[in-house]
Amino acid sequence: MAPVWDLDPVIFQVPGLGLPVRYYGLIFGLVLVGGFFLFRRQILRGRGTDDEAFDFLLPGVLGVVLGARFGHVFFYNLDRLLADPAWLFRIWEGGLASHGAAAGLALALFHHSRRWKRPFWDVCDRFSFSAALGATLVRLGNFLNSEIVGRITDSRFGLRFPRYDHLPPELTPARFPSQLLEFGLGLAVLGTLFWLDARLGREKRPQGLLTAAFLIMYFTGRFLVEFVKERHGQVDSFILSRGQLLSLPGLVLGLALLWFVRQKPRAEY
What we know:
Layout: E1 10-13, E2 20-22, H1 23-45, H2 50-55, H3 57-76, H4 78-83, H5 98-116, H6 120-144, E3 159-160, H7 162-165, E4 174-175, H8 178-199, H9 209-225, H10 242-263
Antiparallel strand pairs: 1-2, 3-4
Helix pairs in contact: 1-6, 3-5, 5-6, 6-8, 6-9, 8-9, 9-10
């Protein structure tokens, strides 16, 4: 019988207030802090300043949170929004989408590049490490929350998520732990970015290459993992899931950017 994953996502309640402190919230905070310090390291290495790094903090956080929320609402739950428009603002009830977060971050990075007069792909390259860290840790948070699960399976790799299926453990079907697959994907992307950065001479690396590598690796991985993920609000008769369709633009952009980078002479930042 498949192992059971039944961790309570709430660590403790704040005394006197009754507010829950969740593993996911702590991990999301770690994403923001760790992502900032990775970005700051890249900015300082590229002759930037602490002021420039800190200036991205607010737009970056807003881009992630608002983009992820709007992405989840408009890509996956438009019917619920139309039935209850106020639900858009009840973020504490859950509902964030990584594709929306990517779009929100792209806007924040574009704003930063214009404000600090850095080439857009330069800023994206420097942020790619933070994006990979976020993609890795958020899926760990999903696993601790027993959400974003995989499809039912009878393979030996399955886990039972009674908190997701709302069934007693002995009646809960085994599912692919797709969150852990994406956690591993994020680690692979992050490790590859560090390797490429060192291999290509750090500040001598071709501009846009790290962004292209991130987009190609991450969205190819997302596309493949979607084959074993549970579909939400979508019939199984369609060949591709909504997540796969949303991954295709990122993958195509990465391939186009890689082609463009290879046409240009090697240049320093």
